[in-house]
């Protein structure tokens, strides 16, 4: 294998933390490189997101123009424009749809090979997904946002901590999204075919995450219920509200803290489900 480094990172008991970081970084970089090979798909996807950005932006600006006081849901016109264009970029970063890798491997039986790897399956999927999100931030997030800034007046954050908080919120959204997608795909352990749950996830995720319209357009009691009782607003609505400074600073921080709670809970649930599934595979002789 001339020119290729075929070494596999080995976690040493004498330096476990450093080796875990190295392994996690290598897996993340592999996810970045994997999606960097799909150049034509990246260009086509970015163009599609930009086209839909124009459609959504004009619709929401029309809503703002016809609303009493010109602030539907508490958003100004610039905030709504930013909500749309940043949301179009984040759609691919967070990756709500299209991921069926775990379900496909369960159905084919290839998931048995995942159990032989030196890292837990959830880590083996989370690290490359963060690398994928990093690639999407560069090539799928920035182009639509640049086009939006060229044709519309976007909202510029006024608080010094908003941008770092927004970056943290994006990372938490990616982690929570992977946890949800992992759980949906893991239903294949019991159903053997996860197309039903995946279809239900595809239909509901965009609406409940705030992709099609801001959840603040809903009645206050329903919006609060979605935020507290479900993890979906943390996928898109929370990062967008943080960036456009829809709420006072304490509420901003509270939304990101709630997002962190949901992300932790989802990854913990994914680990628990995977362990139950492994026992099921052994019971079945798999």
TrEMBL record:
Pfam families: ABC2_membrane_6 (PF06182)
The keyword Zinc-finger is assigned to this record: no
The UniProt record lists the keyword Translocase: no
Lineage: superkingdom: Bacteria
InterPro entries: ABC-2_transporter-like
Residue stretches spanning the membrane: 47-68, 80-99, 137-156, 163-184, 196-215, 252-273
Entry keywords, A to Z: Membrane, Transmembrane, Transmembrane helix
PANTHER family (UniProt xref): INTEGRAL MEMBRANE PROTEIN, SLR1174 PROTEIN-RELATED
Protein name: ABC-2 type transport system permease protein
